[in-house]
Design a protein that fits this description.
CATH topology of the largest domain: Metallo-beta-lactamase, Chain A
Structural class: alpha/beta
Largest sheet: 6 strands, mixed
Number of helices: 12
Strand content: 15-25%
Shape: elongated
Number of strands: 21
Strand order of the largest sheet: 1-6-7-8-9-10
CATH superfamily of the largest domain: Ribonuclease Z/Hydroxyacylglutathione hydrolase-like
Distance between the termini: 57 Å
Helix content: 25-40%
Bound molecules: MU-OXO-diiron
Radius of gyration: 24 Å
CATH class of the largest domain: Alpha Beta
């Protein structure tokens, strides 16, 4: 077992989960997910988080191998969500002398998950506190709501490593070598999207540190070109569009609204839109469409009317965007209805409740099937959106 890049004494002991059907019971992860965990071997030994119980068996083997017969002195808990804390009891039982290092919020929540009192084993830390392991010193920074209230990150001062909790994580097992940004962006907006302000606050703290390596709890260890990753996180957490482009998200029952959405996509491309993505909300991964909504500066929502409102997958999409604090974007609306169109009114109800979302007119209403006059309206809408 070798140490991680640019460090000495720090070992990766995490595991890949390539069998999971849905991460957090909601996100498809075609390339799996990694539960990361790290061990620092110094005068004192320190374990940086555990793993989901699904990966416990392999992780225990990794831990034993890295410890090479030594005992564990500290377990640092940065996040109590079960994908990281799921194997804590194993550590507590196996290493009765090990102390648990965490903050007050973590210790307050601890009995909820584990039903035990660890008062005699806890070391409570607060913002800026340090813990010496010998050659390595750990410094703790609170990161509330990046992704849960008890989250903290740890900066290792000797090798300049930031253990960033869920921050800078991505979907995808480490055995799968793939582009970072695509699955990191889908992960970020769906899991941390609501918490832009806390993420920005954490990035400000990180700006004051000399960081050479980022060790997240999911996804690859980052040790090169850190400005790129930190720059993307600054863009995402400030809700600034990453790229110019238009997402056309549609909800169609029998295919007529789909035809209008695809036609609008062609019109937008012909009129010079830098990028156009047309997505079927009934069939595509909702998390992927949410990612695109945040990625681009403009969006069109096109949907059939349904039960006096809007077709359910569009309602679900807009509810998701609202809960993820979708904002600072320009949006256009297309509806379809055969007798009493209600989709536009319903969609605008969601959009008008969002911060800094500009709705451009004309709103296009198609009656059942797109006709020539509708195409003219779609042309006008495209002109207004791209103006
Ligand atoms: Fe990866 Fe919020 O747990």
């Amino acid at each position: 077992m070798s140490t991680i890049d640019k460090t000495k004494d720090i070992y990766y002991i995490g595991v890949d989960d390539t069998d999971i059907d849905l991460f957090e019971s909601q996100y498809v992860v075609p390339n799996g997910i990694a539960y990361n965990s790290y061990l620092i071997m110094d005068d004192k030994t320190a374990l940086m988080d555990t793993v989901d119980i699904r990966g416990q068996e392999q992780w225990e083997k990794n831990l034993n191998e890295a410890l090479s017969g030594r005992k564990l002195d500290y377990l640092i808990v940065s996040h109590l969500e079960p994908d990281h804390a799921g194997s804590i009891m194993t550590v507590l039982n196996k290493f009765p002398q090990a102390k648990v290092v965490a903050n007050a919020k973590t210790f307050a929540m601890f009995p909820q998950f584990f039903g035990i009192d660890i008062d005699d084993r806890k070391i409570e830390v607060k913002e800026g506190d340090t813990l010496s392991l010998g050659g390595h010193t750990l410094q703790f920074f609170m990161a509330p709501m990046v992704h849960w209230p008890e989250v903290m990150v740890t900066y290792e001062q000797t090798d300049k490593v930031l253990f960033s909790a869920d921050g800078f994580g991505k979907f995808g097992a480490l055995s799968n070598d793939e582009d970072w940004a695509c699955e990191a962006r889908r992960y970020y907006f769906n899991i941390c999207g609501k918490y832009g302000a806390p993420v920005s606050a954490l990035l400000k703290k990180a700006d004051a540190l000399d960081i050479q390596v980022i060790c997240p709890l999911h996804g690859p260890i980052l040790s090169d070109n850190l400005d790129y990753y930190i720059g993307l996180y600054k863009t995402w957490s400030s809700y600034t569009p990453e790229n110019e482009g238009v997402l056309v998200a549609y909800a169609s029952i029998h295919g007529n609204t789909a035809k209008a959405a695809q036609k609008l996509g062609e019109i937008l491309t012909a009129k010079g839109a830098k990028k156009v993505v047309v997505s079927d909300l009934a069939r595509e991964d909702m998390a992927e469409v949410i990612e695109d909504a945040f990625r681009y500066d403009k969006m069109v929502v096109a949907a059939a009317s349904y039960d006096g409102g809007v077709f359910p997958c569009m309602e679900s999409f807009l509810a998701h965007l609202k809960s993820k604090a979708y904002q600072k974007r320009t949006v256009a609306v297309v509806e379809n209805g055969s007798w009493a169109p209600s989709a536009a009114r319903t969609m605008k109800g969601f959009l008008e409740a969002m911060k800094d979302v500009k709705i451009v007119e004309p709103t296009v209403t198609i009656k059942s099937v797109m006709k020539e006059g509708d195409v003219a309206q779609l042309e006008a809408l495209a002109d207004a959106l791209l103006a």
